[in-house]
Write the structure tokens for this entry.
Amino acid sequence: MPLAALQQKLTDRSALIAVVGLGHVGLPLSLAFHDAECRLLGVELDEHKVRLLQGGRSPMGHVPDDAVARLRESGRFEVTRDATRLRAADVIILCVPTPLGPHLEPDLSDVIRAARDVATVLRPGQLVCLESTTYPGTTREVLLPLLEATGLRCGRDFFLAYSPEREDPGRRDFTTRTTPKLVGGVDAVSGELACRMYGLAVDHVVAVRNADVAEAAKQLENVYRAVNVALVNEMKVVLSALGINIFEVIEAASTKPFGFQPFQPGPGLGGHCIPVDPFYLTWRAREAGVGAPLVELAGEVNRAMPRYVVDQTVRALNARGKPVRDARILVLGLAYKPDVDDVRESPSVELMRQLGDLGARVDYSDPHVPRVPAHAGVMAGRESVALTSEKLSAYDCVVIATHHAAFPWQLVADHAALIIDTRNALGKVHGRRDHILLA
């Protein structure tokens, strides 16, 4: 009976779909289900974010206010901080953070908290799906026991699946609807239900054998990128020592029509997944008694890049007779990627912290991030500097960490005394090129 009832609700689109966590994953997913004419309940702990959503405003720059206003005005979306409201939902999708702990170990505290909230209200006929990036086995080994501790049984009373998020903030060529959706259930029935549910809002749903396969596929997607970015970051260090521009080399290699895919170096890796996943996977590998040295080394190479940029900055300042202590340094771009306001794991924050530890007076400029958010640690609360010729001229050094289209690149090239260009942002700008160091 619980299975038949849920199948019918998914068929006639009467199911109430709850999304727990309305951040970079949960909010776009909610918009996709809303556009599919589904009823939605959003559960979010952040009071400020709840107020914005209730007022029809977006809490993130790459999701427009008018999209959120459509949610509010339709009458099919409600947002609350009260997790007990999940009892009314037919589908519960968990989109909560999975960061690293202080020793680079997986931190599943938000997943466990959310699962316990669900367990307190779990009833027959509900489908629970996890979307958070994690190591293989999490859904089966962590969520399943917490939910079955209620006395209900998975595959009979309730249903459990994993479907990895594939959000890329600011991307325009793919949306939540048009990005293929991997789905794996803890059991076959759960997998089939989850595929039917996601099929309401996503054009192409890809069923895999079980949740473990779906979790491992997400790891492979992100570790693939982490390893290749580590390769070009390491090449950047080597080629810089040889006096060769890494960006020119990548452009040249990219002319080969097969056997090569370009990746770009930078001051480090940002975002929620790619800087984190190598350590989730290597932790899980060690638990299984095997090693993943290539993956682990890639994570370490990428984490070391902010220190490399800082060292390059110190060397460049010293060559001009300026010690780093009391030097005025401006970091361009706080977001981890162009044209968004996402600062999760941003290397810019680490650059600012390390330069500040060396005694430099560090500011930043980012039109998308007017104030450093609270989760950025010691840098929290600092405000973005507006770029003018006078202000640029007052800094001893400008470090380009993000390539926002909104930055006045010619102005930067003309008025900065020393430029550490980690993104090749000025590669096509004609300015004082003798003052530009590609880090």
